[in-house]
Write a structure and sequence with these properties.
Blueprint: H1 32-67, H2 80-111, H3 116-132, E1 137-147, H4 167-179, E2 182-187, E3 190-191, E4 198-201, E5 204-207, E6 210-212, E7 216-222, H5 224-233, H6 235-245, E8 252-263, H7 278-282
Antiparallel strand pairs: 1-7, 1-8, 2-3, 2-7, 4-5, 5-6
Helix pairs in contact: 4-5
């Protein structure tokens, strides 16, 4: 548009030849300076646009590298693993406080040892302590480790639910070990007693209020051969093993004979929040 010229009114192009009284040529205004300025402005605008887009691209790349695939707005992130670790640390601190309180109670009971009723209660406590899981146990045993399938097993034609360890899988192993002659047992290092409950929450298993990610290790002291036979005969364990042996799933399974295992005493709360009799449960 800047290179076209518009003839001014009264120029030779707008006046018929017969009306031109003055034969001298009429000088037209020179637009070359304006055209040069217009062309220079376009070049400047293009340069500014190029610089703007280049700067935006540079900032985008810098942000991507800095984020390393994460959200730079950390306050909007919810890291489940960090929450689980914080909960586990808090639970350990509470367990330590509980152990200190129990020591104080034992000291108070010891001071009252001269009382006849206190002596009877203490003897009864010592009698039932091993059965209740309140004393440590050491002896030969077994260890079973269950784990989720590796990431390579995930595909569109495989149900994701079949690639993770569920609470019923852990319960199946624990029940088989009890049936095979286990005297004491731990899951993830925690002593299992009659009131212990295994719950599945998301991709973690909660035991005594503490969430644990896989792998899940179960240790038991008792008749080693009897426990292994019970695992082999359990239909629920056999169902899990079918997924562990199938290359499409590849769930983790490891069975070990241990010459010596130490099962610690239970140091959690013995209080029941909810309970009902076996007769009521069967109705």
């Amino acid at each position: 548009m800047g290179d076209e010229r518009v003839e001014p009114a009264g120029s030779p192009a707008s006046v018929p030849l017969e009306e031109r009284a003055d034969p001298r040529p009429i000088s037209l205004p020179d637009d070359s300076a304006g055209a040069d300025r217009s062309g220079a402005s376009r070049i400047v605008y293009r340069l500014l646009a190029a610089v703007t887009f280049g700067l935006a691209g540079f900032l985008g790349v810098t942000s991507a590298v800095s984020a390393a695939g994460t959200d730079l707005r950390a306050e909007r992130q919810t890291d489940i693993a960090d929450l689980a670790r914080a909960q586990l640390q808090r639970a350990r601190e509470l367990d330590a406080e509980l152990a200190d309180l129990r020591e104080e109670v034992d000291e108070l009971l010891a001071r009252q040892s001269g009382d006849e009723e206190a002596q009877v209660a203490q003897k009864e406590l010592e009698r039932i302590a091993p059965v209740a899981g309140l004393t440590a146990v050491t002896g030969p045993g077994v260890a079973v480790t269950l784990d989720d399938a590796p990431p390579s097993a995930r595909s569109s034609d495989v149900d994701p639910d079949a690639l993770v360890v569920h609470q019923q899988d852990i319960q199946a192993v624990a029940n088989a070990l009890w049936a095979g002659g286990a005297e004491a047992m731990t899951i993830q290092g925690q002593r299992i007693i009659s009131t212990s409950a295994i719950r599945c929450v998301g991709n973690s298993v909660v035991l005594h209020g503490i969430p644990y990610p896989p792998p899940y290790r179960i240790e038991a002291v008792g008749d080693v051969d009897g426990m292994i036979r019970a695992l082999e005969k359990s239909p629920q364990v056999e169902a899990y093993l079918s997924y562990a042996k199938d290359p499409r799933y590849g769930l983790g399974w490891k069975l070990e004979r241990l010459p010596s295992v130490t099962i610690p005493a239970f140091d959690g709360s013995l209080t029941l929040d909810y309970a009902r009799s076996a007769d009521d449960a069967s109705r």
